[in-house]
Design a protein that fits this description.
Number of domains of chain A: 2
Number of helices of chain B: 22
Low-confidence stretches of chain B: 227-235
Largest sheet of chain B: 2 strands, antiparallel
Oligomer: heterodimer
Radius of gyration of chain A: 24 Å
Order of helices and strands of chain A: HHHHHHH
Shape of chain A: flat
Order of helices and strands of chain B: HHHHHHHHHEEHHHHHHHHHHHHH
Distance between the termini of chain B: 69 Å
Strand content of chain A: under 5%
Structural class of chain A: mainly alpha
Distance between the termini of chain A: 58 Å
Mean pLDDT of chain B: 84
Largest sheet of chain A: none
Strand content of chain B: under 5%
Shape of chain B: globular
Number of strands of chain A: 0
Largest interface: A-B, 67 and 60 residues
Number of domains of chain B: 1
Number of strands of chain B: 2
Structural class of chain B: mainly alpha
């Protein structure tokens, strides 16, 4: 079974679940003849279920014709480099809350640059430092856009920096 | 006071050294702010309010409208070069701008963006000067049912975005519409499809989804296929292979004209704005195009449609502000606040008692839109320098801009996670030839569609027929049905012909 087919079936199942869920968790309309909170999503879900069913039939036909030759495999779709890049991105979006903008951005740029192919430690450190500071100066200092402060000692460090400018 | 007197008054107001200087500065800062993801056009206007204390009230609004127009245009710069929409209104610019940049035609793309923006801005300013009152009255005739029909018209493009993969595009658009429903119900005020997450109560934010779908997914693609990275050779603004010929410009005339009119009208409508205007303009031009299949692959018409429409909406949003005292959008609301800070009473009498406001804004917008071509070109050249940075620095830098852009709107870190998730989704969609553009179209228009449908039904007392048979609504819905059905019929006919052959 191709990845695309699995995804289509998963979305179809989720759509059917949502069709039931939205009806079960929202109250009926407060006025007779007026659309309730569930009606509009249900209308869209009906369209989505029909379109997904047609697509699934098409995908099944195609997979029979080509005997799966053209279907994308998991490894081809998610090579190790992609997985590492995605993990770095997810980790960055999580640590921003704890470490604040500057430390987490410094770590993120180092890790991502290394993944893309930069090997020299000095370049990694310098590049990460310059880009973090540049973005901080543009947004936090010049444009007064509040950036994540972090928690604990990192928060105190962020507040100290903000106080300097 | 006739039009000529108004014009002379506007020139007297704007062509003073101080106001001209401020308009130039506003232009430069507006383009830069617009080009920075995370600083929306209304935010740029708000940031500039303190500078207006140095100006008189008419000069203030002239200066702020310069910032607003320039910011909307500036958003197109990163959309072309990095596939990051600088402002939400530039999301559509990424569809054709980035493919052009990848082909080494970023210079051509930038020229089309700048000239189209200028044309859109100037036409809407003209409309503002000449038929401000009439346009406001037209805008007021658009109630919920008409706005619902307008949104449907925008959605009707779904069947023609990619005729070869119609079902996949439909699925993408419907997913966008569905995602837009995951929020607090707009009428009943109850949580809907939020699964207990308080974050979803405000709805899935549009900006992180757009940035993730376009910018983050692109970086993820570049990470695994480094052979595709041709940064300093192909995506080079300065070494763009060729500029536009006279014939190519001439071909764009109707696109610019139609989108200027559409953008001005959409700008006037309450609840709409530059973002919706660019989507609608793009949808409309796809219907009129001789080669709709080129849309999304680097079509100059697509690019021009997006930028003309969003800039025309800037002038449109000023129409109800000046003639009725009702702000047409967020940026116009900030301008009202700036005027009130200076003790100006904004309302329907403003134009009668002080016509200098209308003429000052008009002349300022014309000057801005002409100046903007040169200022934005300079800023674009500076941004293009970023393309010389090796991708192991540029890739993380794009993610940083994307993250700050997603975070800055609501100062909410969950938005950064949403951006990462959208990036993953955008990557999968691109790999399997679904349409991230259709998904964002659904997401942008979903809310306006549902809100207005339900309000319209409520006003009509539950009588759907009464609501849908209003003249403007019925006309727009009929056009929508034709646009939706045409590609399907064309495809069936083509299939029959092939079977017969």
């Amino acid at each position: 079974m191709s990845v695309e087919l699995i995804l289509n079936v998963a979305i179809l199942a989720f759509s059917i679940f949502c069709y039931w869920f939205v009806g079960a968790t929202t109250p009926p309309s407060s006025m007779p003849g007026i659309m309730s909170a569930a009606d509009w999503p249900r209308l869209i879900l009906i369209g989505l279920v029909i379109a997904l069913s047609i697509n699934i039939v098409k995908l099944l036909r195609e997979s029979k014709k080509s005997a799966g030759a053209e279907a994308k495999k998991w490894r081809e779709l998610f090579p190790p480099r992609f997985i590492v890049a995605f993990v770095i991105l997810v980790a960055y979006s999580i640590i921003l809350e704890y470490l604040g903008f500057l430390p987490s951005t410094f770590l993120f740029v180092m890790a991502f640059s290394a993944l893309i192919g930069l090997r020299k430690i000095s370049h990694l450190v310098l590049g990460a430092l310059c880009s973090s500071v540049a973005i901080y100066v543009i947004f936090q200092i010049l444009l007064q856009v509040l950036l994540p402060r972090g928690m604990g000692v990192f928060r105190e460090f962020s507040i100290f920096l903000e106080g300097l400018f | 006071m006739d039009t000529f007197d108004l014009l002379r008054l506007g020139i007297d107001v704007v062509f003073t050294p101080l106001t001209l200087f401020f308009i130039l500065i506003g232009n430069l800062l507006g383009v830069i702010f617009g080009a920075l993801p995370g600083v929306s056009a209304s935010m740029a206007v708000a940031l500039m309010v303190p500078f207006t204390f140095k100006l008189d009230p008419v000069g203030s609004i002239a200066f702020l409208s310069a910032v607003y127009c320039a910011a909307i245009t500036g958003g197109g710069i990163p959309a072309i070069l990095f596939k990051i929409p600088g402002t939400p209104a530039s999301a559509v610019t990424t569809f054709d701008g980035y493919p052009l940049a990848v082909r080494g035609e970023s210079g051509r793309a930038m020229l089309v963006v700048l000239v189209s923006s200028a044309v859109g801005g100037i036409v809407s300013a003209l409309a503002m000067l000449l038929v401000s009152r009439q346009l406001s009255e037209l805008g007021l005739r658009f109630g919920p049912s008409e706005l619902f029909a307008v949104a449907c018209l925008g959605l009707s493009v779904l069947t023609s975005m990619d005729e070869e993969r119609m079902v996949k595009t439909l699925i993408s658009g419907l997913l966008g519409l569905f995602i837009a429903t995951m929020a607090m119900d707009p009428v009943e005020g109850v949580p809907r499809l939020t699964f207990g997450f308080s974050y979803l109560l405000g709805g899935i934010p549009m900006i992180p989804v757009m940035i993730g779908m376009f910018a983050v997914s692109e970086v993820l693609k570049q990470v695994i296929r480094p052979t595709q990275i041709k940064s300093d050779k192909v995506i080079d603004f300065k070494r763009s292979r060729k500029w536009l010929s006279f014939r190519e410009w001439w071909d764009l005339k109707m696109t610019m004209l139609r989108c200027s009119v559409l953008g001005t009208i959409v700008g006037i409508l309450p609840g709409a704005g530059a973002t919706i205007s660019s989507f609608l303009g793009y949808s409309m031009e796809m219907k009129f195009a001789r080669h709709p299949e080129e849309f999304g692959k680097g079509s100059l018409h697509g690019l021009s449609a997006s930028e003309t429409s969003n800039n025309a909406a800037t002038g449109g949003s000023m129409v109800p502000l000046l003639s009725l005292g009702i702000p047409g959008g967020n940026a116009a609301a900030v301008m009202v606040a700036a005027l009130m800070l200076q003790g100006v009473q904004v309302g329907p009498m403003l134009l009668k008692t002080q016509p200098a406001y209308l003429s000052g804004v008009f002349v300022s917008m014309v000057v801005t839109n002409v100046l903007m071509i040169f200022v934005a070109f300079g800023v674009a050249l500076a941004f293009a320098k970023l393309m010389d940075i090796p991708y192991h620095f540029l890739g993380p830098l794009i993610i940083l801009f994307a993250s700050v852009g997603s975070f800055a709107t609501q100062s909410n870190l969950t938005d950064v996670m949403t951006m990462v998730a959208a990036g993953f989704g955008g990557y999968l969609m691109a790999e399997f030839h679904y349409s991230p553009a259709a998904l964002t179209l659904g997401l942008v228009l979903g809310d306006i569609c549902e809100n207005n449908l339900r309000r319209g039904v409520m006003i009509a007392g539950g009588d759907y027929w009464a609501m849908l048979s209003r003249p403007i609504t019925a006309g727009l819905l009929l056009a929508c049905a034709v646009f939706l059905a045409l590609p399907v019929i064309r495809r069936i006919l083509r299939g029959n012909r092939q079977a017969a052959a």
